[in-house]
Design brief:
The protein is of the alpha/beta class and 732 residues long. Helices cover 39% and strands 17% of the residues. A seven-stranded mixed sheet has the order 2-1-3-4-5-6-7, with helices on both faces. The radius of gyration is 29 Å and the shape is globular.
Length: 732
């Protein structure tokens, strides 16, 4: 018997578990509380995409006479091949049969339907992708063809990373969701509940906690709650996660609690610990008397919000290491939807999830939910604790890949984490989300790369200095360009989130933003991106004061979800008309093509001519910034110790002894010479500032040099030292 069953309903990711249940399981492990966790998304996908299940799906489609499109007709006509290949494809995507890649890439192994039509446009990529990646991409298209068949013939709500998402989007009323819940169980519902009930009977929990991160998990989450209330009413049911935290903060409809018992908001550790105490000891106090924390429940047909507990939330350092125990880590499938190395990170590979800092250290962007706890409460975790957790996860999962899921990882903490990784000689691969701020110097990017950082994502948003200032983003287009250049030149891939339709944005600014983005991709300092149309949220600064941004919100009577708010833009521009052209052009830019086309070619309506010069980004990159080294700047030596030889040369009639330093690194060999006394100082110093020792500051170097030698400024700006700075001496 377990105290708590944590579960993520279908569907989130195919390649790695969504981290909420692992975070909570790790915390309760520190409390010696028995838990179990399930990712029903991967469980259902593996059951669904099997020869056994698809044989049934093909029979249902034929018997119900629902094969209406030419595409599905082709898939059905080739059903014997699909049934023959599907189990092998899944094994390959799980990494269990890598040799199959050669057959998949032959073009004579997988049946092909409409998803393969785009292959001609992607042939360029296969020279850049290894055979395994090319095979993953082809296998992904194979699964997407079968997904299309499911949507047309079995369940229109199906999606690999979402299910019945439309029911959760802007659902101000519970009516549509409840109506859907009264419908008979779908084919996918039956699979979901069958798998769930088997585990439920094994673990017999007192409390089931359903994590609902996205609108696409909402229906399945409530379907599971409905099943529990109908069949296991003695088990308490709670929901939490991203969707409740943003959408259900003002819930009023008591019908919701016919399917669940509780909703907890924000960080779940303390609220769920208190909730478990209540469930285990129901008879001590009534619901209304119990000191819950950030918890909704229903009593006498009234929705009640209780936050009377005097107990504080736990500090991040006390939450423990996420635990993936119970999740089928070897069964997740890696897929590659787009032949773009940066874009594939979200769907390819198994990533252990960690957070460097709770909340956002900037917390000012006007479109963002900065009033909510997950943004406004900023609390970093010490680098030593983070790397301790990384080592523990390597031991428990066998995986060396990490995705830090921060709102925006703080540069100073990233530096400390990188140094701690290098100090311990760990070989790890990691990526995260950042703000494109000037702290990301060339030297910091080199350090991050050396520690295993392979990619970052960040928000360029509108690519317009006027609008970036209005957003209070704290960056400029020039700054973004220089940071992405520093990252890319260091070998770190960059993804950018892009926005259009921001309040007061003109059509001219949208096209100028596209031109900025085109240049960033053409210069190869941006590798991936995603355009989304601005959405007004209730918890953002714009949501609180829309009149400042010349928009009029359309306020509905809200009894269920309250986050996305419809509005009237006083500019009168229909920004949605730009959607197709922006996304089509970006798709091409991400594949390295289309830079020579006129911007007008991406749109089927007249657009204004861009006012941005064709060399704008290059000109920004060419501007030189002279910065003085700060006294507290850290100095780190990333290289090996040199091969040293001694030689003499005459200078003004005197014979001087010099040391020749020959350095070997991955790029090759470089040399420099120092006078012997200075060279001996340099040898000692670079040995002292390797990551395995302790970095020193510029000020410390200055004092040590001046205590032994003369004229530090001449030494600091000398050509030999400049050679070290240009290679493996980092100034951070």
């Amino acid at each position: 018997m377990k105290d708590i069953l944590f579960l993520t309903p279908p569907f989130t990711q195919l390649n790695t578990p969504y981290p909420a249940t692992a975070y909570l399981s790790g915390f309760f492990k520190t409390k010696s509380i028995e838990t179990f966790q399930m990712d029903l998304g991967i469980d259902v996908i593996l059951e669904l995409f099997s020869a056994k299940t698809f044989e049934t799906i093909f029979d249902i489609a034929l018997n119900n006479d629902c094969i209406s499109s030419e595409n599905c007709e082709r898939i059905y006509a080739l059903k014997h091949l699909y049934l023959l290949r599907i189990d092998e494809v899944i094994l390959f995507l799980q990494g269990q049969n890598p040799s199959l890649a050669r057959q998949i890439c032959s073009g004579q192994f997988l049946p092909q339907a409409s998803r393969f039509d785009e292959l001609d446009d992607l042939d360029w990529a296969f020279g850049n992708m290894g055979m395994q990646d090319k095979a993953k991409h082809l296998a992904t298209l194979f699964l997407e063809d079968l997904s299309d068949f499911i949507k047309e013939c079995i369940d229109e709500n199906f999606g690999f990373s979402r299910y019945a998402e439309r029911l959760g989007q802007s659902a101000n009323s519970f009516d549509k969701l409840e109506k859907a819940l009264q419908e008979p169980l779908s084919f996918i519902d039956k699979i979901t509940l069958s798998i769930f009930e088997k585990q439920l009977k094994i673990h017999n929990p007192k409390l089931v906690c359903i994590s609902i991160p996205f609108p696409g998990n909402l229906f399945s989450g409530f379907r599971i709650g409905q099943f529990l209330k109908q069949n296991y009413p003695e088990i308490a049911v709670s929901i939490g996660g991203g969707f409740p935290n943003t959408e259900l903060r003002t819930i009023k409809d008591p019908r919701v609690f016919n399917y669940i018992d509780f909703i907890t908001l924000d960080d779940g550790e303390r609220p769920l610990e208190i909730l478990l105490d209540y469930v285990k000891d129901k008879n001590s106090l009534s619901l209304s008397e119990y000191p819950f924390k950030r918890t909704f429940y229903c009593e006498n047909n009234q929705v009640i919000y209780s936050n009377s507990s005097a107990l504080n939330d736990y500090k991040q350092k006390d939450l423990g290491t996420p635990s993936y125990e119970g999740l089928p880590l070897n069964k997740y499938i890696s897929v590659i939807e787009l032949a773009n190395p940066m874009h594939s990170l979200w769907s390819d590979g198994r990533w252990n999830k960690l957070t460097m800092a709770h909340g956002c250290y900037w917390g000012k962007c006007t479109f963002c939910d900065v009033s909510l706890d997950y943004i406004k409460t900023y609390e970093p975790v010490a680098a030593k604790i983070l790397v301790d957790r990384m080592e523990e996860l390597i031991q428990t999962t066998g995986e060396y890949g990490f995705h830090f899921v921060d709102e925006a990882a703080p540069p100073a903490l990233m530096r400390s984490v990188a140094l701690e990784i290098l100090k311990r000689n760990l070989t790890v691969t990691w990526w995260t989300n950042i703000r494109f701020e000037k702290s990301f110097t060339q030297d910091l990017c080199i350090l991050l790369k050396a520690s295993g950082c392979i990619a970052v994502s960040g928000g360029l948003e509108v690519a317009s200095d006027r609008l970036l200032e209005l957003i209070d983003k704290g960056v400029t287009v020039e700054q973004v360009a220089k940071v992405t250049r520093n990252l890319t030149e260091s070998g770190i891939m960059v993804h950018s989130y892009l926005m259009y339709g921001y309040p007061t944005q003109t059509e001219q600014e949208t096209i100028d933003s596209l031109e900025m983005v085109r240049q960033l991709f053409e210069l190869e300092i941006l590798q991936s991106g995603f355009w989304h149309q601005f959405a007004l949220t209730a918890h953002s600064p714009i949501g609180f004061e829309p009149e400042k941004y010349n928009i009029q919100p359309i306020l509905n009577d809200i009894t269920f979800a309250n986050n996305d708010v419809q509005f009237i833009d006083e500019t009168g521009i229909d920004h949605s008309k730009f959607s197709f052209g922006l996304k089509k052009s970006l798709f091409n830019f991400m594949h390295g093509v289309g830079f020579d086309l006129k911007l007008q070619d991406w749109f089927d309506f007249k657009i204004p001519k861009s006012t941005i010069s064709k060399n704008y980004i290059q000109d920004q990159l060419n501007t030189i910034e002279y910065t003085q080294t700060k006294p507290n700047a850290k100095l780190v030596w990333l290289g090996q110790m040199p091969i040293v030889t001694e030689f003499t040369k005459k200078k003004k009639g005197k014979e001087l002894i010099f040391l020749n330093f020959t350095f070997h690194n991955l790029e090759g060999i470089y040399e420099t010479n120092f006078e012997k006394e200075v060279g001996l100082f340099v040898l000692d110093f670079i040995q002292d500032i390797t990551p395995q020792n302790k970095p020193k500051t510029y000020n410390q170097l200055k004092k040590e040099y001046e205590s032994q030698l003369e004229d530090f400024a001449l030494f600091w700006h000398s050509k030999p030292l400049q050679t070290l700075k240009e290679n493996e001496l980092l100034i951070l």
